[in-house]
Design brief:
Elements (H helix, E strand, L loop, with lengths): L1 E5 L4 H12 L4 E5 L7 H16 L7 E4 L11 H10 E6 L16 H18 L3 E5 L11 E2 L13 H14 L8 E5 L1 E3 L14 H17 L6 E3 L6 E2 L1 E3 H13 L7 E4 L5 E2 H12 L4 E3 L11 H9 L12 E2 L2 H6 L10 H13 L13 H8 L1
Parallel strand pairs: 1-2, 1-4, 2-3, 4-5, 5-7, 6-15, 7-12, 8-11, 9-14
Antiparallel strand pairs: 10-13
Helix pairs in contact: 1-7, 4-5, 6-8, 8-11
Bound molecules: NADP nicotinamide-adenine-dinucleotide phosphate (NAP).
Length: 380
């Protein structure tokens, strides 16, 4: 039987495609077409690149063109019949990472809440009971105490619309009585590959990195006499960066072992990075030194031009400009004792940062499988 994977064209989805393929688990994936590329071509390209990377052939996923925002994910009746006959579990990973909604009908509500309702409806229609869902550790919102894996709504304040949409999604899934108890994965801040630094998306950690990298030439022109740039942090705050390869490996191991289904897992590192370590890495990789911690919650009311630009651009991440809570890891340690999370060291963060800078904060899948019009052009 196949597992239905959503979000297979994103960063985590790409690693899930690889790890599920390496585990020989048959995959069906719902993908939307993009630009001139059909859903099939998008996945064919990713699989061709993954096969090259792994040096082996994989069973190709069954690709269904669709969109989680449409009823039945926009699938045709014969696709629903195919799923009923060939699929018994879902790994729902697709989501919008929009932090602030511009309307009640827009993102992140559209994909993360309405999309989840559509995926649940599809499961009910096709008899899929085994549900694995990718949530986020930040459904804990602005909590500062220890967060247990089984906690969800304990009355906490939430930091942004994304967190609100992800908590609503978890609630919908947990109340779907036709499902077996769902498995919920809660990664913290996903960064690139722990060994190569590879990434395809540049949210979270990459936003301040990109900004400082961009501002570095302006800062260099200011000369050495300018005052240091003030950070409204004290340097001891923790940030739970977690490499994408480990998140995916841990998820696929749990998916493969039914005795671990039905639990909630914090996919978080045991030892989070501090803001001092993060500042040091950002300075080394951008060559832009001179950031000073002036205390958590300090109000910088006379910002320099550089400080103003910096704080304006990271405003969307304001709710993460603070100490993380402690994330309990009891369930994840029990389920994957053979897969310890790699330590996010200063060296690893440097590899990850340098890879993103080298990629110029852009990723375009190398085209291995051409679209029809590209093939026609190639023949002319
Ligand atoms: N990145 C993090 O730091 C982080 C942390 C915690 C949890 N998470 C969770 O991890 C999961 C994967 O995140 P990611 O970082 O891999 O994000 P990503 O790289 O932005 O990928 C998002 C994926 O979802 C798909 N998608 C979005 N809306 C869709 C729609 N309406 N119909 C079909 N597909 C749709 C995208 O498809 P297209 O390619 O067509 O756009 C893409 O494949 C998400 O559930 C996210 O909430 C992420």
């Amino acid at each position: 039987m196949h597992i239905l994977l959503t979000g297979s064209t994103g960063l985590l989805g790409r690693y899930l495609l690889k790890d599920l393929s390496l585990a020989n688990i048959p995959i069906v994936t719902v993908v939307r077409p993009k630009g001139r590329q059909s859903a099939q071509q998008r996945i064919d390209n990713i699989m061709a690149n993954l096969e090259e990377e792994c040096g082996q052939k994989f069973q190709p996923p069954h690709v269904l063109a669709g969109d989680i925002c449409e009823p039945n994910l926009g699938l045709k009746d014969n696709d629903l019949k195919w799923l009923t006959e060939n699929c018994d579990s879902v790994l729902h990973n697709a989501a919008s990472l929009t932090f602030h909604a511009t309307s009640d009908a827009g993102e992140p509500w559209r994909s993360n809440v309405e999309g989840v309702k559509n995926v649940l409806d599809l499961c009910e229609k096709t008899g899929i009971k085994d549900f694995h869902h990718v949530s986020t550790a930040y459904v804990c919102g602005l909590r500062s105490d220890k967060v247990l894996e089984n906690d969800l709504d304990v009355g906490q304040e939430l930091g942004n619309d994304y967190e609100k949409s992800k908590i609503q999604a978890e609630e919908l899934i947990r109340s779907a009585s036709f499902l077996s108890p769902p498995t919920v994965f809660r990664p913290s801040i996903i960064i690139g590959d722990s060994k190569t630094g590879f990434t395809t998306t540049f949210h979270g950690y990459y936003v301040p990195l990109r900004l400082i990298h961009t501002l570095s030439s302006v800062i260099a022109d200011e000369g050495e006499d300018t005052p240091g740039r003030r950070l409204s942090l004290d340097g001891t705050e923790t940030k739970h960066f977690v490499p994408v390869d480990w998140v995916s490996a841990a998820m696929v191991s749990i998916v493969q072992n039914p005795e671990h289904h039905g639990q909630t897992y914090h996919l978080t590192p045991p030892n989070p990075a501090t803001t001092t370590m993060t500042r040091d890495v950002l300075e080394k990789v951008t060559g832009c030194y001179g950031a000073i911690f002036c205390g958590a919650d300090t109000v910088i009311d006379d910002p320099t031009e550089i400080e103003r630009l910096f704080y304006d651009h990271i405003e969307v991440y304001n709710s993460y400009w603070r100490d993380d809570p402690v994330f309990d890891r009891t369930n994840i340690l029990k389920a994957v004792p053979h897969l310890p999370c790699p330590e996010v060291t200063e060296d690893m963060l440097q590899i990850i940062s340098k890879a993103a800078i080298e990629m110029e904060f852009r990723w375009k899948e190398p085209v291995k499988v051409k679209t029809n019009s590209e093939e026609i052009h190639a023949k002319i």
